[in-house]
Amino acid sequence: MAVKKKKSKTNKKQKTKVTKKLVQSSVSPKTTSHQKIRFETTQGVFVAELYSDVPATTKNFLELTQKNFYDGLTFHRHEPGFVIQGGDPLGTGMGGSDKNIPLEITQYKHVKGALGMARSQDPNSASSQFYVCLADAHFLDGNYAVFGQVLEGMDKVLALKKGDKMLKVTLTK
Question: Using CA atoms, how far apart are residues 88 and 2, in angstroms rounded to an integer?
Answer without folding.
Answer: 10
